[in-house]
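All the exercises in this workshop are built on plain-text protein records. A record pairs a protein's sequence with a compact description of its fold. The structure tokens are whole numbers drawn from a learned vocabulary of backbone shapes. Once this layout is familiar, the rest of the handout is easier to follow. An example says more than a description, so a record of this kind follows.
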Amino acid sequence: MSPDRNPLVATFLDLPVGSPGGSVELFLDLYTGEKPLIPARAFMLAPTGPRPRTPAGLDLLSASGKCLEGPAFHRYVSHLRQALTAAINPSQIDVLHLQHLAFGATPALIRALPAHPRIALVHGTDLLFAEAHRDQLQILRATARAADAIVVPTGAMADHLLKLAPQTDRRKITHIPWGIPDRLLTDPPARTTHTSKSHLRLLYAGRLTAEKGVEALIRSVAPLQGVELSIAAPSA
């Protein structure tokens, strides 16, 4: 790295630009814009159809065949690697930020830039899909071995990762919390006493996807009196 510039990250989220989700919003907030928080060559997938307007600093890669397992998955990863190799000058990159432990972008980025240090970020979907798909489990284990550092948002995710990939070096795992800290879940503060009667208000924020357990939440809340559930979710 040149002493007169900040480290430049290479990172890739293999979702079509415009996809909903908290991980997408975090990705765009960190790596794109006129003054990104982290200087990066940031990539997402080009959607089918017209090319949309994109934030400054976001590049789009064209690669069809996105899937999760089998020979088609390995072909998809190969296509992503080729696209990254054509788009990136390795001498300009200082570190890789692997947005997931699983899926196609992570192995493609590692293979395109095999000599660079790697920081992996763990999401719940990595663990869920690794449990459900053999190829994703293999990618997760290989990424955990290859990463120089692994960032988890909760202690529970670290435990789950070590269950799926028990050979992972625990010393590489760093806990950087987001959302509600674990301590507030395991040792919540004392409830305040309200003098006036009011109902319990709950807020769910996120996509309405099966793995987030929204159906169980709604079924549990529906028969209760004095409980109001609000949902903030993308319209799609």
